[in-house]
Amino acid sequence: MPLDEGLTLELTETVRRVVEERLIPAEEQTVAEDKVPDEIRALLRDLGLFGISVPESYGGLGLPLEAETRLMFELCRASVAFRSILGTNNGIGSQGIVIDGTEAQKRHYLPRIASGELIASFCLTEPDSGSDAASLRSVARTDGDDFLISGTKRYITNAPEAGLFTVMARSEPDQPGAKGISAFLVEAETPGITVGPWDRKMGQRGAHTADITFDEVRVPATAIIGGPERRGQGFKTAMKVLDRGRVHLAAVCVGAAQRLLDEALSYAMDRRQFGQEIAQFQLIQAMLADSQAEIYAARCMTIDAARRIDAGEKIPMLASCCKMFASEMVGRVADRAVQIHGGAGYMADYPVERLYRDARLFRIYEGTTQIQQLVIARALISEASEAIGR
Ligand SMILES: Cc1cc2nc3c(=O)[nH]c(=O)nc-3n(C[C@H](O)[C@H](O)[C@H](O)COP(=O)(O)OP(=O)(O)OC[C@H]3O[C@@H](n4cnc5c(N)ncnc54)[C@H](O)[C@@H]3O)c2cc1C
Predict the structure, then answer these.
(1) Nearest partner of 127 among 109, 151, 93, 91, judged by Cα
(2) Contact (CB, 8 A) for 54 and 62
(3) Spatial distance between the Cα atoms of 256 and 373, rounded to a whole number of angstroms
(4) Span 215-220, average pLDDT
């Protein structure tokens, strides 16, 4: 049973307080050290936030997606680097196991993922395969009852900290595209794995990505998510994981945008030009109002999509709508927040300079805006074709 409504509200309230009292004050240190401080990591673990989406029977909070999105609205008012350290455990790193894993895999990994003791990463992207993920080249060659995995994965979130990788690799070399791919659970200690140095990113300092190379990494067939009978089904697992993840990410964008608007409003009410607060100028008010309306729109669509997923609806098209709209929205809100700050917005002394860079990622990962557009348009065309019997 998931947490009841009262406890969920209480947790959301606690996260709101923790954001103000602990996380926002720790942002500068996180940037300076390019590392989330150990005490903040411990605090997030103690709150159970590494296991928001893991069922209670495996040690998580088991929250419905709607409650998870509401938590993200609050948490992501603080630097999104804090969300990133627990993002893969709640999303792409754990949900494959939750959705398609065997009972043994669930029991073995989920409790440690939920507690934050084990960091779980998801390895799909490769140097030559990003948006066209089904063209990935990593191979999983059979060797007796085992598989030997070889290939390079790129930009893998939390790879330097991870103890467990979900690795998408081609197990059926004669099957082209998505059909020949399996999802393997690979422990970081397995011989043949090399994690590269941290990538030097535009923003989100404190959250890390890296390349990983797999050189004949031996895993048993039972390491396939769902067991040997789900061999060749890995891409389907990945797509199911991404649907839920896109709604989660939309909620992250709403939280980040709210912070940017709060910063912009506060600056506008403080800064004076031409003898008055700049907040009194209607051209500044237009930027504030547009941002507020767009945040509200993204918030509503995110909650609607989350409720539908909680009710068991399959909504890949709406999930893409949320991810696309919310990530583009936070880009516009960030741009206006910098504009409202004038020259100060370009200076690292004010948080909006950093928050602007942090927000740029959301239009790129877990499917770029262009890929979301393709998903949405293709769904529309397919529905319309069906309706007219084509
Ligand atoms: C910080 C960060 C963290 C990440 N974390 C992870 C992770 O944990 N695990 C993981 O597997 N991956 C991760 N990624 C990878 C991310 O998902 C990819 O970068 C993303 O999917 C885009 O792929 P790409 O970089 O190869 O760009 P490309 O696919 O090369 O795209 C380049 C441009 O071409 C456009 N384009 C591509 N195809 C089309 C098309 N058909 N029509 C129109 N336009 C198109 C794209 O929209 C984009 O504008 C991460 C990336 C970053 C930057």
Answers:
(1) 151
(2) yes
(3) 22
(4) 98
- Amino acid (1-letter code) at residue 181: I
pLDDT score of 292? 98
pLDDT band at 360; cut points 50, 70, 90? very high
Structural domains of the chain in order of their starting residue, each with its CATH number: 5-115 (1.10.540.10), 120-233 (2.40.110.10), 236-387 (1.20.140.10)
The structure tokens 């907040």 sit at: 279
Q: Taking the model in full, what pTM does it have?
A: 0.97
Nearest 5 degrees, angle CA 45-CA 51-CA 52? 110
Beta strands at 120-123 and 164-170: parallel, antiparallel or unpaired: parallel
Q: Which atom of ligand 1 sits closest to the CA of residue 131?
A: 29
CB atoms within 10 A of CB 244: 23
Q: How many CB atoms lie under 10 A from the CB of residue 5?
A: 9
What CA–CA distance (Å, rounded) separates 122 from 103?
Answer: 20
Residue 361 tokens, joined: 């990622």
From 161, 263, 353, 366, the catalytic residue: 366
pLDDT of residue 1: 45
Which of 80, 125, 202, when mutated, tests ligand 1's pocket best, judged by the most ligand atoms within 8 Å of its CB?
125
Query: What is the model's pLDDT at position 208?
Result: 97
Alpha-carbon distance of 87 to 73, in angstroms, equals 14
Q: Is 187 an active-site residue?
A: no
Cβ atoms of 149 and 140 within 8 Å: the answer is yes
Instruction: Tell me which H or E stretch contains 216.
Output: strand 209-220
Q: Ligand 1 pocket test: pick from 34, 131, 181 the residue with the most ligand atoms within 8 Å of its Cβ.
A: 131
